[in-house]
């Protein structure tokens, strides 16, 4: 059984839902050494998240952003954590709802997502900056 762990810096992106599957695979040549296994991807932030969903139609990512902005609005009068701006507390809530990690099967040296699936970086801040993910690969 092989184990690899790598910390990756993702480029800063605007607020929204962004496909990062190809970016991850490009930065993980170690995937090629695994015939069958798992990739666990964990984001080290409290105002961004990871998810797996539709990778073909960009309107899905647009609709996710629109829905979450309505579900978790900025400037709610009951928020107390407001010193970092009106997008900060909603970003924490959205990140908790979406989750900090995803686990994907590895098959024949590739992430084995479905035909219409991709890994999303969900950026919930207006100015989130570069994000860090820790990827742990295990398999044979």
UniProtKB/TrEMBL annotation:
Species, as recorded: Rufibacter hautae
Pfam family membership, one: YjbQ
Similarity remark: Belongs to the UPF0047 family.
InterPro entries linked to this entry: UPF0047_YjbQ-like, YjbQ-like_sf
Protein name, entry field: YjbQ family protein
Highest taxon listed in the record's lineage: Bacteria
């Amino acid at each position: 059984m092989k184990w690899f762990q790598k910390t990756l810096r993702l480029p800063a992106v605007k607020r929204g839902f962004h496909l990062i599957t190809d970016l991850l695979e490009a930065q993980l040549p170690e995937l090629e050494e695994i015939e069958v296994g798992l990739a666990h991807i964990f984001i080290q932030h409290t105002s961004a998240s990871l998810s797996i969903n539709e990778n073909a139609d960009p309107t899905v990512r647009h609709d996710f952003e629109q829905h979450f902005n309505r579900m978790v609005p900025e400037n709610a009068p009951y928020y107390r954590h407001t010193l970092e701006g009106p997008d900060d507390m909603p970003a924490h809530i959205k990140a908790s709802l979406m989750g900090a990690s995803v686990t994907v099967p590895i098959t024949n040296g590739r992430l084995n997502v479905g035909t219409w699936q991709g890994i999303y970086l969900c950026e919930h801040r207006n100015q989130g900056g570069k994000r860090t993910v820790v990827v742990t690969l295990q398999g044979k």
